Amino acid sequence: MIDTSTPSTDGSRLDPATPVILRLEDVSIVVGNRGGDRALVTGLDLEIDKGEVVGLVGESGSGKSISALACVGLLPSALSVGRGRILLSGEDVTHASEDHWRQLRGREVAMVFQDPMTSLDPCFRIGSQIVESIRAHQHVSREVAAKRAIDVLGHVGIADPARRFDAFPHELSGGLRQRVMIAAALVLEPKVLIADEPTTALDVTTQASIIELVKGLCAELSMSVLWISHDLAVVSELADRVAVTYAGELVEAGCIREVFSEARHHYTRGLLESAVHGKRGEAFGFISGSVPEPSDWSAGCRFGARCSRADEQCAQHPAMTQVRLHRMVRCHHPIHGAPS
Amino acid sequence: MSTAVVADALTKTYGSRRGSLGRPAVDNVSFAVEEGETFGIVGESGSGKTTVSRMLLGLVAPTSGRAVVGGVDVWGGSREDRRRLPQAIQVVFQDPYSSMNPRMRIGKIIAEGLRGPGGKAARSGELGRLLQLVGLPERYAELFPHQLSGGQRQRVAIARALAMNPAVLVADEPVSSLDVSMRGQILNLLASLRETYGLTCVLISHDLGVVRQFCERVIVMSAGQIVEQGDPDEIFQAPRHDYTKALVASIPHLPGQA
Q1: Full-model pTM
Q2: From CA B48, how far away is CA B224, in angstroms rounded?
């Protein structure tokens, strides 16, 4: 069932007619269960349409990884969603029970982590780990599940999947392990895949093949993807839209080409300048200072201390504002793009 | 100009005394780095780039071949010779969290190499100078590593390396563990120190963009061997070896970036 009753909170959505698969409404994630505790993520609004790839970009401490964990019901016990709602295909799962999450994970939403070696159990053959997840959801025989697991291993581009089915995780390369993780995530055909820095631990050539794989699967299965990364270039290779986070909140969101060619927020622009390389001998781009800890967040603009444009107005916390169609920015002094 | 680093047919095969474990990690690698040059080593994980640097640093013994750094024969020289190695070459590692003793104060971490003639007063003056050099306030000498951010810790690692006044500085993925917005700060610091002190720099990286902007010459390694070498701009614009071609084609691009 698709919930269409609530108005859209994410002004950067491209097509209001397609169903929203994953929606975060004003989500705050706090340490502890009581109100008034320290927040690590505040006021996060995000919507992902069917078949869409959204990139969530941020540095350490931006809260991007715990936001992802909240979407699959895997927040560490010390953290909880303090405010707001998380909806999967219209169903409010913000306070779903662990039993209910076990039903949802795999079928509605699946996750791929950065390091496949720590997400796979080293003591079990990879095939049996995929079979286990199929049989946890569906009453099928071991043989049927094994056949499906081999199919999905082949589907993610693993050569000779019947033989790999019997391999232990340590017998595979990092790239193959990440393909196995993606296969395990896809085997129940989830509507949305959450990928947290899935290529960061891999070599660039392997990274390129994983990006191609996810792109292809997305188009073929019209699966939605939330791709979390610190690497702007990786996100630009596969996302339709991008949301930039800084110190626990979104600072800019929009269509990928626009955000990267005409950043409106000073943080986004600084990040882009840091990522683009120049000619030999030229100075490297950077943002002065460092990312603040949650305890050091300013009551005003959290980026203010590192921003060249900051003035007295920035002592007021800026709201996420729509600057034009499909384009949101949280800044009192957004950079003016070229007129379009 | 004289030669700061010579790697002569360096080969390293890992394995037990009874036999080797398949192919060498580093296979017959030779190159020379001139004094004051910035030299890049590029390759993917397992290509042997870090093993090469460890043989230059005196941390991994080559199975065969020779390494000469700042006039010191790293593996063939006398004990006297090898004692001079810390003044010849120093290193900044990728991960500033694991390369520092968490129970030592920053001042001690940096000053460990300064022991010797001069006494305490000279050392503390030198410590202040080193901290200033890497852009940290002097009071940081009293702090512990966990009280610093990743970028600040990497500055400490650079100060520690410079304390020995080395001729050659090896930086092994010095910014890979740092936030994107911080990387430029550290790379610019390395570039300015190189300029000021005429340091010879060996930068090991998987990031071709960084190498292209930082280095005058580069070798590309794959499976323990050098597959291509020369001017970074030329190599990355028109790679000749199949491996380099694949590497260059795999780099993700931002829109509008060449």
Answers
A1: 0.88
A2: 5
